[in-house]
Structure formats: C-alpha cells, structure tokens
Specification:
Mean pLDDT: 81
Strand order of the largest sheet: 3-2-1-4
Structural class: alpha+beta
Radius of gyration: 34 Å
Shape: rod-shaped
Distance between the termini: 37 Å
Strand content: 5-15%
Number of strands: 4
Low-confidence stretches: none
Length: 201
C-alpha cells in the first residue's frame, strides 16, 4: 500500500529514480488486481459454474426417478477384498437382491445395498433409477451445486490474487537486481578515487 501511494507522492521528487516510479505503478496494479479484478473474476467464475451445475441438477432430476423397491433375499456373499487394511477401514453394507418397477412400467431385479440393517424379505425402500429402471446415483442437490460453485469462485479469485502478488514480487526482485548492478558499476568507477583529495570524495 505504501509503495502504491508513492505513485502520487514521488511525481516531482528530485531523488526519484525511474525504477522507483515503475515499482510504484507495479504495486498499484497488483493492488487493483487483488482488490478489484480478483473478486470480479471470482464472481463471474462462480456464476458460470453455478449455472452449469444447476443445469446439471435440473437435467438429473428430469432423468432420475425415486422408485419403490422390495427386498427379495440377501445377495450371495461377495469375495472379500485382498487388502486387509481395506477390510478394516471400509464399512461393508449388506447387499440384497431387490425388485422394482421402472417409470416405464418394466420390472427389474438386481443387487443393491440394503437401506436398513438387518434387511428382511418384503421390506420396502426406495432407490434411484433412470426412466428404463437402471440403477443410478442420487441427483446432485442444488445446495451442493451452489457450494461447489462458491468454492470455484473463491479458488478463481485466490488464483488471480496470488498471480498478481507473484508477478509484483518477481518484477521488484528484477528491479532490485538491476539496481545492485548499477550500484556495483558506479562503485567500481568511483571506488579507486574515493577519499582522495581533489577527487570529489
């Protein structure tokens, strides 16, 4: 902030170097990017992602249906995992054979996770299917879509801000490097005569 304010204060300073003014303008541009550009980019990115996800939510709710199913019998035991760690950490849901009627009227039977433990033949529960009765996942919730869109907007804003600050630091580092080179050259030129009478030192 102090460097950015120098754009105005150093306009007519006789000690101002060209690199000082350039550094101040770079700092001011970085400040504008962080305060104005980054939030704007995050807002636009969030709106676009939210629009895309909300369209996906609408499409999934049109294509996926919650239909009643009936427990027929327990499913045959599946082969255990070869990874002992996975067996200890991954909770196993009871698999059952269930029957259901698709929205198009066709009957289906398949293996699904049990809704309640322990399952009993004849128990009723609901599952998500497409129009033809094929099992599908739960449709995306609108609130979850909005959360993901907000996270995407924040990530975009943070990315722009980090990029602006990084570019500013790189530019300042380059300017400092050039200043040191010029100082070394000036000292090399004036060093042999420093402190000698009549040399201006």
């Amino acid at each position: 902030m102090r460097t950015a304010m120098g754009v105005w204060r150093w306009r007519h300073n006789p000690l101002r170097r060209p690199t000082d003014l350039f550094e101040a303008w770079v700092a001011f541009a970085a400040l504008v990017c962080v305060v104005v550009v980054a939030p704007a980019v995050g807002w636009v990115a969030g709106l676009r992602v939210d629009g895309t996800l909300q369209q996906a939510v609408h499409a999934q709710r049109q294509e996926r249906h919650l239909v009643p199913a009936v427990v027929v019998r327990p499913a045959p035991d599946t082969e255990p995992s070869e990874d002992p760690a996975a067996q200890r950490t991954a909770p196993r849901r009871t698999q059952i054979v269930a029957s259901w009627t698709a929205p198009d009227g066709s009957s289906h039977e398949g293996t699904v996770p049990a809704a309640e433990e322990p399952p009993h033949p004849g128990d009723r529960f609901r599952i998500w299917t497409d129009a033809r009765g094929r099992l599908v996942g739960r449709p995306l919730d609108p609130s979850a879509a909005a959360f993901h869109a907000g996270a995407a907007g924040l990530a975009a804003a943070a990315g722009v801000a980090v990029l602006a600050v990084t570019v500013r630091r790189l530019v300042v580092r380059r300017l400092m490097h050039r200043r040191y080179i010029r100082l070394d050259r000036a000292w090399a030129a004036a060093g042999p005569d420093w402190g000698r009478a009549g040399a201006g030192g």
